Amino acid sequence: MTMTRLDPHDGSHLGDVAVSDLDAVIAAVRRARAAFGAWSTTAPADRGAALHAAADALETRLDEIADLNHRETGKTPGDSRGGAEAGIGTLRQYAELGPVHRGRALQGSFTAIDYAIPRPRGVVVAITPWNDPVAIACGLLGAALVTGNAVVHKPSERCPHLGELLGSILAPCFPEGVLQTVSGDHTTGRALTEQADVDLVAHVGSTAAGRAIEQAAALHDTKVIRENGGNDPLVIDRDVDPAWAAEQAALGAYANGGQICTSVERIYVHRDLAQAFTAELVKATEARNESGELPPLVDTAMRDAVHGQVADAIQQGATVEAGGEVPSGPGAFYPATVLTNVEDSMAVMAEETFGPVAPVCVVEDFEEGLRRAAATSYGLAATVLTGSMDHAQRAAATLPVGTVKVNAVFGGAPGGAAEPRGASGHGYGYGPELLDEMTQTTVVHLAPPRAQA
Fold first, then answer.
1. How many C-alpha atoms does 130 have within 13 Å on its Cβ side?
2. Nearest Cα to 162, choosing from 58, 91, 302?
3. What is the CATH number of domain 233-406?
4. Hey, is 107 helix, strand or coil?
5. Which residues face 117 on adjacent strands?
6. Is 161 helix (H, G, I), strand (E, B) or coil?
7. Closest CA to 82 of 157, 128, 129, 134
8. How far apart, in whole angstroms, are the C-alpha atoms of residue 422 and residue 410?
């Protein structure tokens, strides 16, 4: 059985990749278990050195990786290269953080002490997405490997060629069996998560897939960390510049064609600013559509899903201010789209769209914006644009999300981490905290022996 991938730019045939069947999955997990023992006892500094070697190997193939990412997922050349560079940087980050990862100590009395030792979990399954396939994979693989785990990686079925290339570059930097790649769709993923000899599953992808993984893993008490879908709001206060707010909204909604977990999915703008903001957003949207720089969606199935939400909103009374129509011609392109007169009950507001759509809802005040922004089952991130410190602090204190961004839709310190909530998942997926997720703690109570009489 094989998977076929088409170029999302023009629909041309990219190639076929063999699907890993159940026997291949079982064999990969067994090889990982066999390799785990020696790798788990390798000195942390040596594991860090192996990660540095993997980063070097990836860097020498950067152009090849970036080109294939562009052709297989539709990301722009700049974003494709940037994602690969971010992956290299993440491998180097974990190469340095891993050897200094440590537990804590607590002195219970003058002569006794408790100390915690982080131990690798064992066999880690990493299931990664297509929308930022190199950076996300390098994060999960790097944290798992540097802490002494053996890893079986299943990249998304929407970028199997890229996943196989990435595995072929990274795996030789580690001992045999420590890092393996299997290819396939949800069937392969389910087979992996149902293996009793898997100790942790790390998943980045859709909420539906994450929940299915968690149910399968629960049969063997396998730990799961997952960062899943988002429905991130943008709340715009009355005291900000409407042109700047529109550029922030356009960046948040249209970057990578809206195919980012933390894309702006719904906009709540103060009534006093709504007219000027919407006019500026339409202007920014039309400029993006006319520039030809907006990337295609990953495939026509994703485009159909995005347009389905837009069409449903229009049928329920939403107004199209820009975009909103499937273009003619080959590929999976969809225009940047602005909708007004939307309601929270519409799918385009209530669900993750994952496309270049900016639905704008007018609110009476900042408090209403916060309240409606919080009314969702997702809990990934949220952004507020405000000149009020009080409003910024209130947003940080009340929005039930892993990350609250103030006056910038994207950004964050290098090595930063966040913990999603609700339908968006749970567990840390980035930063130093991911090293904690990839290990389990043994606590030792050490007291002096009783001396002989």
1. 27
2. 58
3. 3.40.309.10
4. strand
5. 442
6. helix
7. 134
8. 21
> Angle formed by the axes of helices 186-193 and 207-218, to 10°?
30
Going by DSSP bridges, is the β-strand pair 381-385/403-406 parallel, antiparallel, or unpaired? parallel
HSE value, Cβ hemisphere, 13 Å, CA-based, for 128: 30
- Length of the chain equals 453
Tell me how far CA of residue 384 lies from CA of 32, 162, 285, in angstroms.
45, 36, 20
Which tokens is 29 given?
Answer: 């997990």
Q: Measure the CA–CA gap between 406 and 427, rounded to whole angstroms.
A: 23
Q: DSSP labels for 18-79?
A: EPP-HHHHHHHHHHHHHHHHHHHTS-HHHHHHHHHHHHHHHHHTHHHHHHHHHHHH---HHH
CATH 3.50.50.60 for domain 2-228+424-445, yes or no, is no
Q: What is the pLDDT of residues 190-233, one digit of tens each?
A: 999 999 999 999 999 999 999 999 999 999 999 999 999 999 99
Domain ranges of the chain: 2-228+424-445, 233-406
- Per-residue pLDDT of 390-430, as tens digits, reads 999 999 999 999 999 999 999 887 788 889 999 999 999 89
